[in-house]
Amino acid sequence: MLARTGQVSAALLFAVEGIGVTVAPENAVPLHWSRHARRIGSGCFRELVVFSRDTPSHLAERYRDMLTSLELPLTAERDLPEGAVRLQDVSA
Fold this sequence. Notes:
mainly alpha
């Protein structure tokens, strides 16, 4: 069974109640649940997306440019999995 949620607190509750495991930011785990948590090593990445139905706004373009110019999370693009950084224009 697979459960998906966009709420970190719900995902943590599922894991603590034994429904499964979750990956969550360390600062989202309440201190009294820390005995249930395990740190994972490098190699876990999260996709960030900029989306616009129309031509992206100036702010969206600046956000996209910022994301592609920084080495997040302090990892060089060459060290990320293949295809981790991609720009896609779906307006055509």
